[in-house]
Amino acid sequence: MPDLFPRLTRADSRLALIVADESWTYAELAGAALEHVALLERTGVERGDRVAVWAQPNLSTAAAMIGNAAAGVATVPLNPKLGLSELRHIFNDSEPRLAFCAEGCDVPHEITSVPSLHAAHAPNPAALPPLAVDDTPTLILYTSGTTGPPKGVVITRRNIAANLDALTEAWEWTERDTVVHSLPLIHAHGLVLGLLGSLRVGGALHYVPRFTPASIGQALVDARHEQTVLFAVPTMFHRIAEAAEHDSGLCEALRQPRLLVSGSAGLSLREHDHIQTLTGRGVHERYGLTETLINCGVPASHAPMPGYVGPPLPGVELKLVDDRRREIDAYDDQTIGEVVVRSAAVFAGYLNRDDATAAVLDDEGWFYTGDLATRTESGAIRILGRRSTDLIKTGGYRVGAGEIEACLLEHPSVREVAVVGIPDDDLGQRIAAFVVLRPGEHRDPAALTSFVAEHLSPHKRPRDIHFTAELPRNAMGKVQKKLLGS
Ligand code: MLC
Ligand code: AMP
């Protein structure tokens, strides 16, 4: 029977996870996960339920997520910095039976409708029973749309296995690899690829709890006797490259990994060049979405392809379509179409949102990404932008303009607001809000920024606030966002 995490079933003494200065072997992780399974039983959590897990950088967090998966319980990972409004929405929508937080970590907010539990799992060596690769929901990943609050993307065991196996093939990823990363454990990148990916291939993950260029450099130095692979978003590569300009040790550390992999947003040609100039080696890009996991990637056997995210991964069908969803045949790297994909990794739908699912997933299983791209003669994809300007990618995080607007409209001083993404060398896009104040209110940009950071998450806060007497509107009264911030 196909098993989601074969090495946790074998449970040997191979190092599985390092978080800060603590580490567990596969056997220890399996034992801790089984302890979590027992805890679920004691608290009455059953197969098919959902359990929220505060994604604190801690070994017990990983044990809880694996334990949930083993018990047939879906994990709802929670950003430790979530604001109360967003947390309320996630809890109301996903109705978790329990919220788990690793002992010693702060739970930022208490919501009394959901029992909350702090625990530290013990690494007593054991073996996990096999986890059948089937359609059991395993993760509910909350992600933004253009309007409304974030939607819960239901990811199954089969989605995870299919995508990780495709990446394993493309990247020649094996148990000899140690992945180094510092991505939050709440999204496809850090959680599915970074954590579950390492565990599925039977390699190790060296998790860096707090991203700085120096902490990544140190992790690479610590792992210098291993074969490493570095995963990061473009903002991280940008900051690492800037720091490496004055740090030959960091340049040297960047030369070590078998692969440097960038994703979650486009890595600019300038950044590719910068890293190549500093280190003499390039970055392999891959492209995906929460709903589809990873669709394209430059194979390890191929040189990096600046500007391109590579061909579709094995098992991923990809087509480009026009505005009316008609297929475009061109392989000329010029004709632009929307990327549409079909694969075993495509999600099982949005939780409680059949309407939203139907809008992006057709009857034949094709998922409409909203991303615009061209395709070369050899099938390599070049991502050029998104259909909607209301989806902002900032620091690799997807943020909906509508969600920030709705939040700011709750602030007593705000009468009208429009949010846009402005090109930014560091963040890719930075969130900018154009605000019309109520009469008599005074301009306090810091108060508005903090309002969003506290109600939603800090990464959703506008970096620029522009006060304006009115918003540009067309004859129909619709705000013309193209006229803002350009
Ligand atoms: C600042 N802070 C505030 C604040 N202003 N807090 C409250 N109120 C305010 N007004 C605090 C923050 O809490 C944080 O605290 C600190 O300032 C810095 O926050 P930030 O500015 O938001 O972080 P930054 O340094 O810009 O982070 C950059 C980054 C981050 C690259 C580390 O953006 C990141 O981790 N990105 C990864 C996103 C990701 O994983 N995406 C994957 C999506 S999946 P403190 O305490 O932290 O200092 C996907 C699919 C695919 O896309 O293809 O992969
Ligand atoms: P998310 O839902 O956070 O996973 O965001 C998915 C979006 O990130 C995609 O729809 C793309 O717009 C963007 N994205 C991910 N990887 C890349 C990449 N390598 N190049 C360009 N855009 C990317």
Features of this protein?
binds adenosine monophosphate, binds malonyl-coenzyme A, 2 domains, alpha/beta, eight-stranded mixed sheet, GMP Synthetase, Chain A, domain 3, 486 residues, 29% helix, Rossmann fold, five-stranded antiparallel sheet
CATH structural class of the largest domain: Alpha Beta
The CATH architecture name of the largest domain reads: 3-Layer(aba) Sandwich
CATH superfamily of the largest domain: ANL, N-terminal domain
Radius of gyration over C-alpha positions, nearest whole angstrom:
22 Å
Quickly give the structural class.
Answer: alpha/beta
Number of strands: 24
Bound ligands? malonyl-coenzyme A, adenosine monophosphate
CATH topology of the largest domain: Rossmann fold
Shape: globular
What ranges have pLDDT less than 50 throughout 5 or more consecutive residues?
A: none
Strand content: 25-35%
Helical percentage: 25-40%
Average predicted local confidence, pLDDT: 96
Widest beta sheet: strand line-up: 2-1-10-9-11-12-13-14
The main β sheet shows up as: 8 strands, mixed
Q: Domains counted in the coordinates: how many?
A: 2
Number of DSSP helical runs: 13
Terminal CA distance reads 56 Å
